[in-house]
Amino acid sequence: MDKLKKIVFGLIIIILLAQFYTPERNLGDSNLETFFTETNTPVSLQVVLKTSCADCHSNHTKYPWYNNITPLNIWLKNHVDEGKSHLNFSMWKDYSLKKKAHKMEEIMEEVKEGEMPLYSYTWIHKDAVLNSMQVNALVTWAKENKMKYELKGGFEDHD
Q1: Among 21, 107, 108, 133, which one is most buried in terms of CB atoms within 10 A?
Q2: Is residue 61 part of a domain?
């Protein structure tokens, strides 16, 4: 039993010390106007994208209270980093036309298949859950933009 107490005490110390570690936060510019202007995003969809997508797909995340708890903050950072590696609205101007067309296609697929936003995000952020009208509007908007970028770039994806 004495050994068990030492193990529990050691774990408590480790957990307490871990709270002093805070990963870097994603607190860059929250302005998505360049993306919204270029993609001719209706205001209603801007709200949807900000609510359901921007925390993980832009350079600015609104962090929940539990981001102050290690290891949850590490888990959140990994989710945000992964999301930004797939699509970052804040970096849209740096994407090529071909990449923009491809990202629009990915938006269409992920939203239509219910893969985005992630369940782990909507479980806490109930306002990020997309209804069928929002899904249809996002898919239509993304399809129009995909075609626009394909025409501008003089290519077409025949997958």
Answers
A1: 107
A2: yes
